[in-house]
Amino acid sequence: MSKQMTQTKLEKLTTFDLFKHHAALSNSLPLLTPDSQELVKAEMELCAIFKAEKLDQIYYAWASNEDAIERAKKEEDLLKSQRKHHESQVQQIKNLLQYLRSTVLVNGNKLEGKRYQFSFSKLKDLKVEINSNIEDWSQQEQEKYCMLQTVTTTKHTVVTSMSGEVLDESTKPVTKTETIPNVDAIRNAYTQGKQLPFGVKVYQNYAIRRKRFLTQRLDSHPSNYPTQLLSELAAATESGGSTSKNELPQSSC
Q: What are the φ/ψ torsions at residue 149 (nearest 5 degrees)?
C-alpha cells in the first residue's frame, strides 16, 4: 500500500519545494477524511525526512566551502612565501652582478657569457642604504643627517538625508610627524669624505640590462646555477673588509 497521498516524487524536489509541499499537505489535513489524513501524515513524515537530508546537505556544502577557503588561504600564504623567496633570490643575483661590476670591470660596462650579456649604466644619484635604526644615532648625527616629515590628512565627512539635506558635517585633520633620513645630506657628507652614522652605506649604483645572444640555444636546466653563484657571492662578501666604494651594492634595476 502506498504511503503517500499524492504522486509527487519527493526525492526529486528541491529544498524549497519540499518545504512548500510539506506546508500544503499540512494545510489540507482538516479537509480530508480520516483515511486520507493517515496517508497525508505518512507523506508528511517522508517529506520531513527528505527535508532533514536537504538541510544536512546545506550544512555539508557550507562546511566544505569553508574548508576550501582555508585551503586557499594556506595556498596563498605558501605562494606569497615562495614569491618572497624568489624575489630575494633575484635581488641577490642582481647584487652579485653589481659586485662583479664594481670589482672586475675596470674598463667597459658589459659582462658577457656564452649566451647572455649584462650591461651596466650608471644611475644619476648615489645609492644610500641604511641598515640601522636612526633612533639609535647620536643627537649630533640626527641633527646632521635627519629631518622631520609632517603629514596632515584631512577627513571631511558629510551626512545628508535622502533628499540631500545636510544633517551633519565635520572636518577632522590628522597630523603625523616622524623622523626620516636626509639622503641628500648623507650623499653630500659621503662625497666630502665625512664620517657617516653606523649602518649607513653610500655607493654608486647601476641599472642592469640583459641581452640574449641568438647564436646559442637556451639552457633548459639552469636551476643549479643560482645557488652556486650566490654561495660564491656570500664567500666573497664575508672575506671583504669595511664599507668602501667597492663594497657590495644593491641593484635598482
A: -115, 120
- What pTM did the predictor assign? 0.55
User: Please, is 206 exposed, middle or buried when counting C-beta atoms within 10 Å of its C-beta (0-12, 13-18, 19+)?
Assistant: buried
Contacts of 218 (CB under 8 A, 6+ apart): 115, 212
The residues, any chain, with a CB within 8 Å of residue 23's CB and separated by 6 or more, are none
Cα–Cα distance measured from residue 223 to residue 88, given in angstroms and rounded to the nearest whole number: 15
Maximum Cα–Cα distance for the chain, whole Å? Answer: 108
Tens-digit pLDDT profile for residues 57-111: 889 999 999 999 999 999 999 999 999 999 999 999 998 998 898 888 877 899 9
Which residues have a Cβ under 8 Å from the Cβ of 166 and sit 6 or more positions away?
158, 159, 160
Instruction: Give me Rg for the CA atoms of the chain.
Output: 37
